[in-house]
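hey can u check if this looks right to u? its 188 residues, i copy pasted from the old doc so theres a chance i mangled smth
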Amino acid sequence: MPSNSSIQSPTAPPHIPITKTGVVVRLVSPDHPSRFLIVKPHSKQGDEAPFVLPRGTRMYRDPISGEMVDARDDATALRFADLLEDLLVTATRELEEEAGVPRTMFHARGPIELGRVMYDSPSGKGRYPILWFGVNFLPEDVGKLIPAKDSASVHWMTLEDYRGYVAKGLARAGYVDILSSAEKKLGC
């Protein structure tokens, strides 16, 4: 199955702010191979949603209402570029909402920027850049997760297990390269 992503410089025009971030959480244990935090989103179209990595959309404070609003497209991101939240803030919020990782725990573990990846959306949203962050967790961190409000379930799995889910059509292929690259960059 072909990959939906390529780890390289984005081809999006450089003047358009990135509106999507994602986080790779790697569980490091001397007794087991690395495992990654994977989420199963709530289904939006009634079909079974595939397993994916936690990610989401950058927000901005609407100048009229004062409410935080998703910057869902390039035109919105350009129009409100000065009001966009920091990319790490987006990643932190989305990780807590989708995977149940408390914000303080994420920051205490020292997240690093993994890089930008162009993603081809299988749902027809086109090709867009995602800025990925990565972080290593320790076994004692697992018990500190809170319920994820924006996902049906959260799981830890190895890269090989994830590939197996992809082969069965249960997970998005576009994240295999992200996980593989993160494993190298997060090292230990």
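Residues 1-10 have pLDDT under 50 and may be disordered.
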